[in-house]
Amino acid sequence: MPAALTAGARSSDPDAGPEDFDGVTRFLLAHWLLIGIVAVGGALAGVLVAHLQSKIYRADVLVMPATQGTSSPLRSLIGQYGGLASLAGVDLSKGGSSTAATVAVLKSRSFIEKYIADRNLLPVLFWRSWNASAGSWKVKSGQQPPSLQDGYGVFIKSVMHVEEDKDKDLITISIEWRDPQLAAQWANDLVRRLNEAARARAIADAERSIEYLGKELEHTQAVEIRESIYSLLQMQINNRMLANTRPDFAFSVLDPAQAPERNKYVRPIPLLLAAIGFFAGTAVGMLAALLAPRLAQSRRRSSLRERAS
Predict the structure, then answer these.
(1) How many CB atoms lie within 10 A of CB 187?
(2) How many CB atoms lie within 10 A of CB 229?
(3) Closest CA to 236 of 217, 256, 213, 219
């Protein structure tokens, strides 16, 4: 076994003395040129990989939950007529739509898949498998083209990211994609569609509640109950009017997404790939320096056998 390899093996011993580290130092000094060349080559390879990879851009839209509070007088009805309000689909315990529920809708399979289908984004998300000139998928025999479920997986894991700042009640919706224009367009479009979905849901809920309360009003003669029903009706009419007239129903946009400049990409990171390549090259160089004497000795033995024969 080569002396350098023996020294390297002994250096892993916790009881190794200073002479073992001296052996490692001598090994590095003896092979610094080989190790350095391979390390620099690894760093250059990392920079080349970063240059050849597709650039990924990020567009952010900053939003905050829209205030849709219920007035205090109506909240006081919960103690007296909470059961009736619940049957009518009226939640007096909180105002408007929950932020957590709205974010859950944004991340839901049905919402994302519908967006992908409406915008025909499968060929965009799986562009490597799409033949644009022929307008067909490049799939092998027996394979299926990407589905909406596949598109949802890619979109939710790699494209869309949602970050909540609960202390400041702010939400950042980020889109990361290879086209900066599309990234900004998708980010703004998702917020708009989310507001539209929340508005439609609120209008449908209000109309169902109004219909139910109207029927209850026809069959109720008690003055106090009729007054409470009128109050609930007024609240639902106000909710329906608010949903019909307010575009930013779920989220108010504080800072819409802008397409980043071409040199402002977030991935790949050339310095990081260069560092990874440098350390990988250093390891490969040290391994090559350790194995080189053994390979040379093996060649000499083979040569001697050939001469002897």
Answers:
(1) 25
(2) 21
(3) 213
Tell me whether the omega of the peptide bond preceding residue 260 falls within 30 degrees of 0, making it cis. no
Determine phi and psi for 13, rounding to 5 degrees.
-75, 130
Strand 57-65 versus strand 251-255 pairing type:
antiparallel
Look at residue 171 and give its three-state secondary structure: strand
- What is residue 259's DSSP assignment? P
Least Cα distance to 282 among 23, 48, 32 occurs for 32
pLDDT tens sequence across 167-183: 888 999 999 999 999 99
Check the CA dihedral 38-42-48-52 and report its sign. Answer: positive
Cα–Cα distance measured from residue 207 to residue 214, given in angstroms and rounded to the nearest whole number: 10
Angle (CA) 62-155-202 rounded to 5° is 55
Answer for the pair 107, 128: CB distance below 8 angstroms, yes or no.
no
Nearest alpha carbon to residue 25 among 42, 50, 38, 7: 7
pTM over 0.85: no
CA atoms of 74 and 231, how far apart (whole Å): 7
Question: For the purposes of burial, counting CB atoms within 10 Å of the CB of 126, is it exposed (0-12), middle (13-18) or buried (19 or more)?
Answer: middle
36 or 71, greater pLDDT: 36
